[in-house]
Write a structure and sequence with these properties.
It is a single chain. It contains five helices and 21 strands. The protein is mainly beta. It has two domains: about 170 residues, Lipoprotein localisation LolA/LolB/LppX (outer membrane lipoprotein receptor (LolB), chain A, Clam), CATH 2.50.20; about 110 residues, Phosphorylase Kinase, domain 1 (2-Layer Sandwich), CATH 3.30.200.100. A hairpin with a 2-residue loop joins β4 and β5.
């Protein structure tokens, strides 16, 4: 479980092609560093959808709190020796959800969201990347309604409590039932159910990344004026990259989905030089994996630019299949991504060859 703003440090030249441009880089910031692509209309925590499992009931309340409460604060994301802080303001009013996230370390970045529309502000380029897609960031957690989680994780609600950002919280563990995914240890506000801290743990229970509030205000103390961007964006370029739904299986791609994962979306978007990159996103309700497919370019691509890389819980595996690069990335064990990449087959129809 990661935080907005670290994609640029995760993808050197042997990762996602730099030719995808700033618009896709910003999209990756939103995708890989946040909990995203929850399907519109799935109201986590609605009484009609609450299952009997007390663990799922609690997780859905955590998701509902992230969407429905007014809160502001500073949280820190730690990945190995790297630590990055962000300020979040989230308010629900008559127009719906309004949110602003400001990066406090590294290159200036802001993410301003109104319901399903997110603006990624890149000041040094005087650029705004517009995305019309819901993106549930920390303290959001679920990628769907959560009903499939007990099939893949054992949920343990501890009777002991902890204290984060001056608030008492309940400790919950999500223990994976196989080696295809990491485990999680979270702490939820005992009064509001808001997620205060989340740790990703490996099979040895070692923490490989974590995110936690340092300070937090909830309720009427949250000031709506803090939603306004600190940048004067008049005259900035606004870019909205069009996306098109695709069916990769019909296009000849046989991509093995790990047990317990299901497809959330399949889209394509333009790259430079008129080419396109396709993306498949799969999830088990907590973890997400993205598979990117882009054409190989003999003139610009390094044929040796493949293999694995890791930063904290984020793993990447890239390989060449036929005349394409396939890149699998996600906060799952490296072997899970390697299995996807190495077992993927491309069998195009005769007309697509």
């Amino acid at each position: 479980m990661a935080v907005v703003g670290q994609t640029s440090t995760r993808f050197p030249q042997n990762g996602i092609s730099q030719r995808m441009g700033a618009n896709l880089v910003c999209y990756l910031l939103v995708l890989t560093a946040t909990v995203v692509l929850a399907r519109p209309g799935q109201a986590a925590g609605s009484p009609q959808s609450l299952p009997a499992d007390p663990g799922i009931v609690l997780l859905q309340k955590v998701q509902a709190a992230a969407r429905e409460l007014d809160y502001s604060g500073v949280y820190t994301y730690q990945q190995g020796t790297m630590m990055v802080s962000s300020r979040v303001v989230h308010i629900v009013d008559g127009t719906g959800e309004r949110e602003r996230i400001e990066m406090l370390d590294g290159p200036p970045r802001e993410y301003v969201r109104h319901n399903d529309i997110t603006q990624c502000l890149i000041p040094e380029k005087k650029l705004i990347i517009l995305e019309r897609r819901r993106g549930d960031r920390f303290p959001g957690m679920l990628l769907d309604d959560g009903k499939s989680i007990p099939a893949n994780y054992v949920i343990k609600i501890s009777e002991s409590h902890n204290r984060i950002a001056g608030r008492e919280c309940t400790i919950v563990e999500l223990v994976p039932k196989d080696q295809q995914r990491y485990g999680y240890r979270i702490c939820t506000d005992s009064k509001t159910n808001l997620l205060l801290k989340a740790q990703t743990v490996d099979s040895d229970q070692a923490v490989i990344d974590q995110i936690s509030f340092n300070s937090l205000q909830v309720g009427d103390k949250v000031a709506s004026q803090d939603l306004a961007s600190s940048w004067n964006t008049r005259g900035w370029e606004i870019v909205e990259t069009p996306m098109k739904s695709v069916n990769l299986a019909k296009d000849g791609w046989r991509i093995p989905v790990p047990p317990g994962f299901h497809a959330l979306t399949q889209v394509s978007r333009p790259m430079k030089a008129g080419r396109k990159v396709s993306q498949l996103v799969v999830s088990d309700g907590i973890a997400a994996i993205s598979v990117f497919i882009e054409p190989f370019d003999d003139a610009h691509d390094n044929p040796l630019a493949k293999g694995a890389m890791r930063r904290g819980a984020m793993n990447v595996f890239r390989t060449r299949i036929d005349d394409y690069w396939l890149t699998a990335l996600g906060e799952v064990p490296a072997q899970t991504l390697r299995d996807i990449a190495e077992r993927t087959e491309y069998v195009p129809a005769a007309g697509n060859k």
